[in-house]
Amino acid sequence: MTSTTTTVAAPAIRTADVPVGDGMSMHVNQTGTPGQPALLMLHGSGPGVSGHSNWAALMQGLGDRYHCIAPDIIGFGDSTHPDPSPQGFATNMELRIDKLIRMMDELELDTVTLVGNSMGGMFSLELAGLIPDRIERMVLMGSGGMPDLQPLPGLIKLVTYYDNPSAQSMEELLLLFVHDKEAFGPRIREISAQRAEVAARVDIRRSHLGTFAPGPFRTWSPDELAAIPHKTLVVHGRNDAIVPIESSYYLAEHLPNADLYVLNHCGHWTQVEQATRFRTILSDFVEGLI
Fold first, then answer.
1. Is 64 a catalytic residue?
2. Is residue 3 part of a domain?
3. Which of 33, 46, 105 is nearest to 73 (CA)?
4. What's the pLDDT score for residue 185?
5. pLDDT for residue 224
6. Closest Cα partner for 169 from 193, 138, 143, 134?
7. Which of 27, 52, 81, 268 is catalytic?
8. Considering the domain boundaries, does residue 6 fall inside one?
């Protein structure tokens, strides 16, 4: 008897520019098929970040079971960059949330499970409060949102990247996103060269500086979190150098249906640094196994 091994190709990522009103469009990456359980993946902030750079590997690993949707949020990647840019995090967030909802409408996404990384976790919390009936569950990964949270040096380096933008500065920044720098060093160098090129675009720079211009910031009080009923998985890398783990402790304490999962030997990029483990955790959570 001769045995053979069949290799299944990863699902291809489809891209489209989706109109979201006011002359704006959102660049959207997708795998899987509409009608499958929908996972709306929201990336974090940072110079040169995009839906594809944050989620491509995870999307390809899940595209046979789920409809994965990973947009470039307005002001990031190849989506519209308003000119002039709104000033301040909260002002930008209001616009970006509105356009995310418009994107969901355009793609006829009635209900989704939110998978939010860092800033994307904060956007997930906002969406859960605004359109609760359209949200099935939430996964918050290294999310902000805690009042009076003291920024770590890594976050300060992210915010101030344009004080000294270069491929070297980008590499130094991205190495802070992972715990095992020896293992990820070569890969980070490749990613940082690509990201630095994207970050050099005038529109990317304008949107980044607008996002982190002085202005009000969005945080969630215990009462606001207590009003979010969705089953939530709060995930944090124990060795996160960008967002303090105390933020996830706070969210898990006050969200009434939240479980906390801390990954040891892991930094801010849980979906990259422990990709197989995170994919399993996510699938089990979506399917109600954990």
1. no
2. no
3. 46
4. 78
5. 98
6. 193
7. 268
8. no
- Residue 23's pLDDT band (boundaries 50, 70, 90)? very high
Distances, alpha carbon 163 to alpha carbons 5, 47, 73, 155, 158, in Å? 52, 12, 23, 14, 10
Residue listed under structure tokens 């929908």: 38
Per-residue model confidence (pLDDT) at position 190 = 86
Q: Where are the beta strands (DSSP E) in the chain?
A: 14-21, 24-31, 38-42, 67-71, 112-117, 135-141, 231-237, 258-263
Using left for φ > 0, alpha for ψ between -120 and 50, and beta otherwise, residue 144 falls in beta
Residue 159 in this model has a pLDDT that exceeds 50 = yes
Write out the two tokens for 197.
């090129």
- Tell me which amino acid residue 254 is: H
Q: Are 11 and 32 in contact (CB under 8 A)?
A: yes
In a domain, 9, yes or no: no
Residue showing tokens 């999310």: 143
How many folded domains does the chain comprise? Answer: 1
Q: Cα separation of 169 and 153, whole Å?
A: 14
Domain with residue 195: its CATH number is 3.40.50.1820
Residue 282 DSSP symbol: H
Q: Is 268 a catalytic residue?
A: yes
Residues in the chain: 290
Q: Which of these is catalytic: 118, 169, 207, 248?
A: 118
In a domain, 133, yes or no: yes
Confidence of residue 9 (pLDDT cuts 50, 70, 90): low
What contacts 24+ positions apart, CB below 8 Å, involve 192-197? 192/167, 193/167, 194/48, 194/53, 195/47, 195/48, 195/49, 195/53, 195/170, 196/48, 196/165, 196/166, 196/167, 196/169, 196/170, 197/48
The domain of 281 spans 14-286
- Of the candidates 25, 240, 247, 254, the residue annotated as catalytic is 240
